Amino acid sequence: MGLCVLGIIVMASTNSLMWTFFSRGLSFSMSSAIASVTVTFSNILSSAFLGYVLYGECQEVLWATQLCSLLTISQGKQASDGAGLRVDNSGSLRRGAAAAVFYWKRFDHLYSALDSCSQAHPSEPSQMLEILGRTPVSHHTWEFQTSSPVFRRGQVFHLRLGLNQPLQSYHELKLEFSTGPNPSIAKHTLVVLDPRTPSDHYNWQATLQNESGKEVTVAVTSTPNAILGKYQLHVKTGKHILKSEENILYLLFNPWCKEDTVFMPDEDERKEYILNDTGCHYVGVARSIKYKPWNFGQFEKNVLDCCISLLTESSLKPTDRRDPVLVCRAMSAMMSFEKGQGVLIGNWTGDYQGGTAPYKWTGSAPILQQYYSTKQAVRFGQCWVFAGILTTVLRALGIPARSVTAFDSAHDTEKNLTVDTYVNENGEKITNMSRDSVWNFHVWTDAWMKRPDLPKGYDGWQAVDATPQERSQGVFCCGPSPLTAIRKGDIFIVYDTRFVFSEVNGDRLIWLVKVVNGQEELHIISMETTSIGKNISTKAVGQDRRRDITYEYKYPEGSSEERQVMDHAFLLLSSEREHRRPVKENFLHMSVQSDDVLLGNPVNFTVILKRKTAALQNVNISGSFELQLYTGKKVAKLCDLNKTSQIQGQVSEVTLTLDSKTYINSLAILDDEPVIRGFIIAEIVESKEIMASEVFTSFQYPEFSIELPNTGRVGQLLVCNCIFRNTLAIPLTDVKFSLESLGISSLQTSDHGTVQPGETIQSQIKCTPIKTGPKKFIVKLSSKQVKEINAQKIVLITK
């Protein structure tokens, strides 16, 4: 019998033992973690290595030769020679197989794969080979719940070869790593390594690290710009090649490797932007920012498998997968459904029948798991959901990523660096003219990488947007756009910098459309240079608090640097097409303030007028109010308010009050977080000067308290007590509590019907932890009127 490869075993997770056996006619059963194990063989072509068993918590590996028919291996009593294992040979072992049995102690975290050999060449020496690979802690991949070993590129991993005789100089031994369809050396999709020849193959290296009798350790290092994704490992010994579809490993980007283009030098930032599987989004309005917990869950079961699958489903060539820029663009496109492909269907209608309302999602893993198992797009998502799953995918693939929110974020469809809103004389938006919009908030993803495709100075954070808004090179994706380019106004730096620049730094124009003698006339009644892109936010590193990163995107509003950047951007734009920046001379300045109020209370809007004269004048104030989505889409017209006042002095205030009856009944038709938009027009009667401003108001809700123990244990019941008092002036209907955590198997809910004003309810939710470590438990209260109130606590789960 010649030298042939018989199996591959590689490291995995400490928390769960995953077994996979691959061999013709082989089956496996296990009665308990450390009880007897049965391995059944049939139709064996060779009398070489046929089986092994993993005992208990990966304590020992036993493998034997010359086994046929049925072999049962049971946990035995420790022998006097210290072997610690015995083979139950009740009629199952043949031809003295017991003499060939041996084992290795403690291979911590193991995956397994087994394949039979073809008939050996008679001229080759009889040998046996087992391959053991490790996923050391230094690869930072041990938490992935996947059946394939996971490594990071540019970093060494080891294969240990177990032979039945020492490796001789005349024995051939080669390792083949292949990825993608039709792998070839010329395309860098096939790498062939000879561990005994100290050379590299496209900067991959393999060396014999240690030879000790029948054991050989091979150190393999992939190149820091290796192709990302799924690899098959074939081992060639002479004329025999171990070829099994299950000998798979995953190779990821490596932010710990200085030569990798995603290298991130700060360890705390790597922990946050690669390893942290929980976090949050920031939502609401600029004056009232709300914290929305989010479980990224990049290590959860099937999530990495889904991400690797998305690479294959995308339009990327295998060689493109070495470049994080192209991977980000492809993943941005794959997050949204189009032409039968993509993870998530966007929906901003307020009607979510046939799917999940976007606000109900609290994490990425259920979405990616559902897509991976069904290969059908998941319904439904909005911007923070798209950003959440993209951040998860990038972290899983090894690209540092953070979720980012910009408040009062512009959508410049005309790509002219201004956001143009057209209104009639009643202050109502003319929808067929107003193609641009301003979202109360918009969430996207920042990804960290070098940009060797650009001139020097554009490395670092790059904005990547998965929400399908505008097409980029024919597909719905956006970025990566360097934050340094956005900050400097270099709007033609790829990719999509002009669009992102407008999102955070565009000028806002409000046009009044008057009909004079049957003809429409356009008049600029407001030009706001500081209203777009406020309070750009992300989660702080290592802390559950908001970090304002507006300065990373732009200079302070109103500063000379900020205006210079705008002038620079407009100059670049005018070089592409004729474009004149609008200018408005204002003698009247107006702003509108509105404090958030408890749902069910009246809303006050304070109009502040600043004039260059203190003379007594009359002012007509008209306001148009509507209920809308956070994107600016109108859901229901609420009312019009008009008021005429006399003003004196350079600064004057006029208040408009919106009664709660005008909006309460409209809330039930909106399956989203409600926002009230007020559009206010002020006209000085004497001078005919007109100014306009837009204001948004969201609602405050009563908090609720939760009681959870500080610690829990796997497999033992954990009880969460929820206490809520309805301090609102209205009843809440269809009240529900839900509890979710990466430490439990599924979402837990509790229904409570209607809660009257002033009523207090208590709820008890029970769950059973399945994973160890500090786990964040997210508890949510929802109803028809109040879409979500969140509370959370971290509980330390032990065994």
**Main beta-sheet strand count, sense and barrel state:** 7 strands, mixed
Q: For the record, give the distance between the C-alpha atoms at the N and C termini, rounded to a whole number.
A: 47 Å
Q: How much strand content do the residues show?
A: 35-45%
Structural class: mainly beta
Rg calc: 32 Å
- What's the arrangement of strands in the largest beta sheet? 8-1-9-11-16-15-14
What overall form do the CA principal axes indicate? Answer: globular
Oligomer: single chain
**Helical percent range?**
10-25%
User: What is the number of E strands?
Assistant: 51
Mean pLDDT: 82
Any low-confidence stretches, pLDDT <50, length ≥5? 3-134
Total number of helices:
10
How would you summarize the topology of this molecule?
Layout: E1 5-10, E2 27-30, E3 37-40, E4 51-55, E5 60-64, E6 70-73, E7 102-105, E8 111-114, E9 129-133, E10 150-152, E11 156-163, E12 174-178, E13 190-193, E14 200-201, E15 204-212, E16 215-221, E17 229-237, E18 240-242, E19 248-252, H1 267-275, E20 278-285, E21 288-295, H2 303-313, H3 324-334, E22 344-346, H4 365-374, E23 378-381, H5 383-397, E24 401-411, E25 418-423, E26 437-449, E27 460-465, E28 471-472, E29 475-476, E30 478-482, H6 483-488, H7 497-505, E31 507-516, E32 519-528, E33 534-539, E34 546-548, H8 550-553, H9 560-576, E35 588-593, E36 597-598, E37 603-611, E38 617-628, E39 634-647, E40 651-658, H10 661-664, E41 675-684, E42 690-697, E43 699-700, E44 704-707, E45 711-713, E46 718-725, E47 732-741, E48 748-755, E49 760-767, E50 773-782, E51 789-798
Parallel strand pairs: 1-9, 10-19, 22-23, 25-31, 36-43, 45-51
Antiparallel strand pairs: 1-8, 2-3, 3-6, 4-5, 5-7, 9-11, 11-16, 12-13, 12-17, 14-15, 15-16, 17-18, 17-19, 20-21, 24-26, 24-33, 26-27, 27-30, 28-29, 31-32, 33-34, 35-37, 37-40, 38-39, 38-41, 41-42, 44-46, 46-49, 47-48, 47-50, 50-51
Helix pairs in contact: 2-4
